[in-house]
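Practice record 12: protein with magnesium ion.
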Amino acid sequence: MSETETTQTEEKRSDQPLQTTAGETEEETRPEWIDYRFDGKSKLTSESLDVFYGDDHAIKGVSMDIPENSVTALIGPSGCGKSTFLRCLNRMNDRIKAARIDGSVKLEGEEIYQDGVNLVELRKRVGMVFQSPNPFPKSIRDNISYGPRKHGDIEKGLVAKLLGRSDEEKEDELVERCLRDAALWDEVKDRLDDNALGLSGGQQQRLCIARALATDPEVLLMDEPASALDPIATSKIEDLIHKLSEDYTVVIVTHNMQQAARISDQTAVFLTGGELVEYGDTDKIFENPESQRVEDYISGKFG
Ligand SMILES: Nc1ncnc2c1ncn2[C@@H]1O[C@H](COP(=O)(O)OP(=O)(O)OP(=O)(O)O)[C@@H](O)[C@H]1O
Ligand SMILES: [Mg+2]
């Protein structure tokens, strides 16, 4: 190619930035954009994490360090892999037959993808709350105590009573503590034996959070926990998430950018193709991102 041709091509490029089919500007992601440094301990670390569904490469080489006792928001356009990444953090993708995972995820430095990891124990430490509230069709009380009973932490029923080993008091304490922590106690304390399906959507979601707290987790993964709720219920969940981060590490997927800006300490932006493009303090990401694509996404130019 002659010199003039090269110049012409370059001129053409600068006139009209190349765009992907999703409307994103083409851009090379720089390693420093995702190299998030923070004070304090890291709780979860992914290294070169890849997820494939058959031939579909849903998560591409994601390395990310998640700090303890804080809220980390995962944002990005639909289909960019947020839920897939979140599910990797407690091996929920193991349940999806087509999914293949390469790379590493460590919980406090321990590899969760090594052989012999007890998945029940892992999911007890890393709990999950889903998009639509899914309480068990049981009483409010039983929704909370079901997990601890299954793990043998609470003994109840006729046999336990006959043997003098009934943990009824312990159960009452647990139910109250979890409902209080989930900011639901005052609304339900007089009807603990009513069916949970009789609660409103926002109450059901707080019950699901209370249920997740009952097994004493260290991390709470939340996939759009407020997307099905009205603004008042949403604001209750947001306040709650903020408070929970004093004692728990919260990782939350949200489509709502104002919500991410309001409740999270740090934000990770995934873009089309399952790539982590930028990760840093939430204020920095929303006010002054490094990546043009992130800037375009946040200002609503695509996605
Ligand atoms: N169980 C599955 N089987 C096959 N492909 C899947 C499965 N789950 C997700 N995918 C694919 O992986 C990619 C990422 O999906 P994922 O659900 O993680 O995106 P997302 O960012 O959570 O999107 P949304 O914002 O719409 O919830 C998509 O291309 C999707 O079609
Ligand atoms: Mg999703």
